[in-house]
UniProtKB/TrEMBL annotation, chain A:
Species of origin: Marinobacterium stanieri
Record domain ABC transporter: where: 21-266
Protein name, UniProt field: Putative phosphonate transport system ATP-binding protein
Keyword Transport: yes
Keywords of the record: ATP-binding, Nucleotide-binding, Transport
Pfam families xrefs: ABC_tran, oligo_HPY
NCBIfam families per the UniProt record, alphabetical: CP_lyasePhnK (TIGR02323)
InterPro entries, per database record: AAA+_ATPase, ABC_transporter-like_ATP-bd, ABC_transporter-like_CS, Oligopep_ABC_C, P-loop_NTPase, PhnK
Gene3D superfamilies in alphabetical order: P-loop containing nucleotide triphosphate hydrolases (3.40.50.300)
UniProtKB/TrEMBL annotation, chain B:
Naturally occurring in which organism (per UniProt): Marinobacterium stanieri
One term of GO molecular function: ATP binding
UniProt protein name: Methylphosphonate degradation complex, subunit phnL
Keyword tags: ATP-binding, Nucleotide-binding
Keyword Lipoprotein tagged: no
């Protein structure tokens, strides 16, 4: 049985679970209206939160602040760590943040080359994360790398090839394998299907959907594609000009949008 | 579930739609709507097209928000007030206690018919072999040809997709079932199967709220007919 099910089926105990990530009064502005402000939310274990909105609405800035890559102007991001307990991301030491990034967290970038090392083999890209958390046995590392290549539908015969020899879709799947091999608790994704053609997108989405539910991952995913959000996210945050204008259950936000901007966003999708 | 146990308790629900991008036009749909449904009971909503039947059903599934009132649904020992519940509470409720079958199947690319049907039961942690057996049994009863089971339903005919959707909706023995015209474009033989499935669900104690345009289905399953304008 996977973790999500364990966490969600106990009707009487569900409210006792502590949030994995708590964000309070977070602000980060480059210029008035540019950045994100007044952000408050809790993310619970096994939850997939989608952040949607048009380009320039502050989605990626927010994701960077949440994943300890961009210091906010003010506010707190509290993470409930397996190793360190409850910690304030921007009040703790840099070294702790680095440990989180290579163990309990995964970050999937829009451009796979930002998340991969392009000049080492696919196997080494996966193995590197394992070595960073203390795995030393070469045979075990290679076996795990093969296992994860299979999980993301890459032929294990390509294990010694470099990512630069892979297609865009394969690179993206390799990036996902590299992130998930250490069984992170929280994964940040920035437009993971952006820039891929539609058939490759469908394959990647199906793969992500399965992995997320099988591993019981908590995910914060930024996307401007509402179909991606509907397929992957349990709940949504709609952003516009740096502010959250609407939040709620994914299908409720998309099927019964309340804010004028969300209504515009939803009604702008081409139907087929 | 025991007989006469209150499963659905709706009181004073208000719902209006405001179209901000079309001149802010606003129209009220539900006005002080209230309804109680007990275990083992099937309530059929009727009323003119546009009267708010579907809106009411979607509000019961928390797919639509409401502007006022309360909706309490039973989840085991608890009654969950869904208009104020957190998203994760609603997801948990839907997973184990609340089923919804519409006339449209939302297909996921690449996922086979069998997997589409099995998924809700798998998500409850039920053994995969058991899920598969139950899915196959339902697809068989609903006359979905076996050669289609391994294919993604995206390319199926409307009626076939609808039957896949019904199989998916009935694979978990949900204590509460919401049915939004599940028989809309089915032939008489398949309508009969759906009627049997609904009766079996009632017999095991499910509380059902449905919308059916076919009079024969309505006659066959309804314990109570309720005019949406009168609730």
């Amino acid at each position: 049985m996977n973790t999500v099910v364990d966490l969600l089926t106990s009707a009487s105990e569900w409210q006792d679970i502590a949030p994995l990530l708590s964000v309070r009064e977070l602000n980060k502005f480059y210029a008035p209206g540019k950045g994100c402000g007044d952000i408050n939310f809790d993310l619970y274990p096994g939850e997939v939160l989608g952040i949607v909105g048009e380009s320039g609405s502050g989605k990626s800035t927010l994701l960077s602040c949440l994943s300890a890559r961009l210091t906010p102007d003010s506010g707190n991001v509290i993470y409930n760590s397996e190793q360190f307990g409850e910690m304030d991301l921007y009040a703790c030491e840099e070294s702790m943040r680095r440990v989180l990034m290579r163990s309990e967290w995964g970050i999937v970038h829009q451009h796979a080359r930002d998340g991969l090392r392009m000049n080492v083999s696919a196997g080494a890209n996966i193995g590197e994360r394992l070595m960073a958390v203390g795995e030393r046995h070469y045979g075990d590392i290679r076996a795990k790398a093969e296992e994860w290549l299979t999980a993301v539908e890459i032929d294990t015969g390509r294990i010694d090839d470099r990512p630069s020899q892979f297609s865009g879709g394969m690179q993206q799947r390799l990036q996902i394998a590299r992130n998930l091999v250490t069984h992170p608790k929280l994964v940040f994704m920035d437009e993971p299907t952006g820039g891929l053609d539609v058939s490759v997108q469908a394959k990647l989405l199906d793969l992500l959907r399965n992995l997320v539910s099988r591993l019981g991952l908590s995910v914060i995913i930024v996307t401007h594609d509402l179909a991606v959000a509907r397929l992957l996210a349990h709940r949504l945050m709609v952003m516009r000009r740096g502010e959250v204008v609407e939040t709620g259950l994914t299908d409720q936000v998309l099927d019964d949008p309340q804010h004028p901007y969300t209504q515009l966003l939803v009604s702008s999708i081409l139907q087929n | 579930m025991t007989a006469n146990q209150l499963m659905i308790d709706v009181s004073g629900v208000e719902k209006a739609f405001t179209l901000h991008n079309q001149g802010g036009a606003s129209f009220g749909v539900l006005d002080n709507a209230s309804l109680q449904v007990q275990a083992g009971e099937c309530v059929v909503l009727h009323g003119q097209s546009g009267a708010g039947k579907s809106t009411f059903l979607k509000a019961l599934y928390a797919n639509y928000s409401v502007d006022g009132g309360e909706i309490r649904l039973r989840d085991g020992e608890q009654m969950v007030e869904i208009t104020s519940a957190l998203p994760r509470r609603i997801i948990a409720l839907r997973r184990q206690a609340l089923g919804y079958v519409s006339q449209f199947l939302r297909v996921i690319p690449r996922v086979s018919t069998l997997e589409v049907v099995m998924q809700p039961l798998l998500d409850l942690g039920v053994d995969a072999a058991l899920c598969e057996a139950k899915a196959k049994h339902l697809l068989q009863r609903l006359n979905v040809p076996e050669r289609l089971w391994s294919l993604a339903p995206g390319t199926f005919s409307g009626g076939e997709q609808q039957r896949v959707n019904i199989a998916r909706g009935f694979i978990v023995d949900y204590p509460i079932l919401l049915l939004d015209e599940p028989t809309a474009s089915l032939d008489a033989a398949n309508r009969k199967v759906v009627v049997e499935l609904i009766r079996e669900a009632k017999d095991r104690g499910a509380a059902i709220v449905g919308i059916f345009h076919d009079e024969d289905v309505r006659e066959a399953v309804a314990d109570r007919l309720v005019d949406i304008k009168a609730i």
